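Researcher: Please predict.
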Amino acid sequence: LQKLRSQTMKLYSYFRSSAAYRVRIGLNIKGLAYETVPVHLVKNEQQSEDYLKLNPSALVPTLIDGDLTLSQSLSILEYLDEQYPETKLLPSDVQETAKIRAFSQAIACDIHPLNNLRVLKYLKNDLNVSDEQKNYWYQHWIIEGFQNLEQQLQDSNGQFCFGEQATIADCCLIPQVYNAKRFKIDLSAFPKIESIYHHCLSIPAFYNAAPEQQPD
């Protein structure tokens, strides 16, 4: 049985944050109720005194579950999988889990940090990079990263990244593809990635986690 929670989880989130988007997908797949607490990154609400007490890194997401306050999307997803294991985001096979973690970290550690909002703001506001140059920077790192991901997906069935059900890998991939499309990147060279993206968006857990469906 699902462990009883004394109160609804809170997810401090920004609708367009791909890291928060990952966690929203994971929560939805598991059918876990949560309250969204918006943190508007463009308006620098993450720098408020109250929020910094929760998350000194001034980033989203932050999850509060009972007396636990946790940041970092992959840590949150793995916590949810261990604490509420009824619908698993990682398989029991150790080698398959290792592949999923490597794929997820390629997104969360290699691609996303180069293109998140604070980096783009720094390029534009501090280094006086033009919008055209900023977009070129963004597209370069996405395309290079997706070349690696596409190779890792050669054995995928085109529905999910690994196996027959969604995993943490899909929680990470779909927000990154959303961002790529937002920056008008041609993904025709990545048929596996595109196929997985379109399949996942047909699933309510993914669709309802999308930026356009968020209260903020």
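Model: The longest strand covers residues 9-13.
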